[in-house]
Amino acid sequence: MTNELFIATYLKVDKVKVDGTALIYMRLGLNGFKKTFTPGLYAIPGRWDATKQFKVTRTGEEQQIKVKLDEVREKVITIHKNETEQGRLISAEQFVELYLNPCSIKQSSYKKPEFYPYPEVPAKAVDEAQQIIAASGHDTGSVEYLETKDGRRVFYDINANSNLRPSIGIKFGKEPFYEVARYLKQKSKSASN
């Protein structure tokens, strides 16, 4: 699946203000899902053309609105480009949240999360993880967990073979994909004998 983006602008002409303007809406289509939001701009319905934004840009105010709409489109396209470059497929709702909440954009800086090895995993955590993997019926796998402030261990991700994080493999001098493939090949040979 790809991050296919569609942007449409329109007015709700049934909701015209006393001054004769109506709120401009933007509909984003992303990966087959749609979400509508408003950039907070108004236009006169009789002078509005959704494909051209205005039939004729007569006033300085209309020109400013057109510039602002172009800026909104550019921002939307930039967010889309950044998400696509990071390999993230997000919902239209998440996309609008990124547009409306620039703080979330600054916090993530569009970087993929980095994972670091934790070489001194407590023996009890290893034991609990092994029990989880065994209970799933698998003999290979990985788990991810966090420890709460009150000391509880919460397992939140269980992977059937490995999460194969290259940064962790590098730290331990292993190539995760190779190690899993080697193990499965050994297992296959044992089963066929």
- Main sheet summary: 4 strands, antiparallel
User: Using DSSP, what is the number of strands?
Assistant: 8
- Put simply, the count of helices is 6
Instruction: Give Rg in angstroms.
Output: 26 Å
Please tell me the overall pLDDT: 77
Protein architecture, described:
The chain is an alpha+beta fold. It has helices at 60-85, 92-100, 102-108, 123-135, 166-171, 176-192, and strands spanning 5-16, 22-30, 33-37, 42-43, 48-49, 53-54, 142-147, 153-159. The strands form three sheets. Strands 1, 2, 3 and 4 form a four-stranded antiparallel sheet that branches. Strands 5-6 form a two-stranded antiparallel sheet. A two-stranded antiparallel ribbon has the order 7-8. α2 crosses α3 (102-108). It is elongated.
Short descriptors:
single chain, two-stranded antiparallel ribbon, 40% helix
